[in-house]
Amino acid sequence: MDIDDSTGAGPAMPKTREEVQDRRALSHAVRERTVPSTQVGVLDRAIDVIDAVEAGARSFTAIAEATGLTKPTAHRMINSLTAHGFLMHVDGVGYALGPRLLNLATTAMRELPLRQLARPALEQLARSTGESAQLYVRDGNRRICIDAVESENELRTIVPIGASLPLGRGSAGKVFLAWGPPADEDMSDIRRSIFTARRRGWADSYGEREPGVASVSAPIFAPSGPLLAAISVSGPDARLAPMRAKRYGPAVVEAARQVEGLLGNR
């Protein structure tokens, strides 16, 4: 595969002060992160390239400048990482983190003690509300249910563990959009709901993902600060009406804080 520099043929030169500063900052950030060398040169260079696009897609020239690699070496590294799915080419932009990294991140998330630590809070949330409770992590433009506790009511919502659901529908999706990076898809239709979620500290939805189903979700943050997961309660909208959802908002937030305390946040 040929390297396609998003700025066109030949070396791309920064045209504005902001572009120059951006490249210098990127180069500095890569150097800072790659100081610990494993003395395995190929591996270190591959990590340098991945670090260079961690904050967003970059052109071939920007990656070469940030890593300090010669263009032939950068060419080989980017081609190899792209072939293995660790990078992907975005037309008109450059190179970004690839789908294999997202898959590995999701698998690693499932292996973390998050599910085990969150289980008591999930069970308590289901008991206190009488509705089903779920735990989600993000996988690109989707969210994955990694644990669930079903309501004891005959009429209840069921989300299977491992279910992959869209970000644009449902309260848990709004949590990931409100406190995490934006999705690649247009989410303008729920922009107001996302702003409301940030203001209240929790999100709700009514019949968005499936007719007759309502839910309330809150964010769980990692000890280092970024969004880690979303915890939710869901049920038939006949029971989980807007006024009742407002009472459940504090309950899901409290469940999230319990999990964060176990993770070492508090």
CATH architecture of the largest domain: 2-Layer Sandwich
Helix % is 40-55%
Q: Can you say what the CATH homologous superfamily of the largest domain is?
A: GAF domain
What is the domain tally? Answer: 2
Low-confidence stretches: 1-14, 24-35
Task: Note the gap between the termini.
Answer: 49 Å
Give the DSSP E fraction (strand runs of 2 or more residues): 15-25%
SS field, number of helical segments: 9
Oligomer: single chain
Largest sheet: 6 strands, antiparallel
Gyration radius, to the nearest Å?
A: 21 Å
Mean pLDDT: 82
Which structural class best describes the helix and strand composition? alpha+beta
CATH class of the largest domain: Alpha Beta
Number of strands: 8
- What is the H/E order? HHHHEEHHEEEHHEEEH
Shape: elongated
CATH topology of the largest domain: Beta-Lactamase
Attribute tags:
alpha+beta, Arc Repressor Mutant, subunit A, Beta-Lactamase, 6-stranded antiparallel beta sheet, 9 helices, 45% helix, elongated
Describe the structure.
- There is one protein chain.
- This protein folds into two domains: 17-97, Orthogonal Bundle (Arc Repressor Mutant, subunit A), CATH 1.10.10.10; 104-263, Beta-Lactamase, CATH 3.30.450.
- The protein has nine helices and eight strands.
- The protein has helices at 17-33, 41-52, 60-67, 71-83, 99-111, 114-129, 171-179, 191-200, 242-263; strands at residues 87-90, 94-97, 132-139, 142-149, 164-166, 203-206, 213-221, 227-236.
- The strands form two sheets. The chain has a six-stranded antiparallel β-sheet, with helices on both faces. The protein has a two-stranded antiparallel ribbon with strand order 1-2.
- Helix 1 (17-33) crosses helix 3 and helix 6 packs antiparallel against helix 9 (242-263).
- The longest helix is centred in the C-terminal third of the chain and has 22 residues, at 242-263.
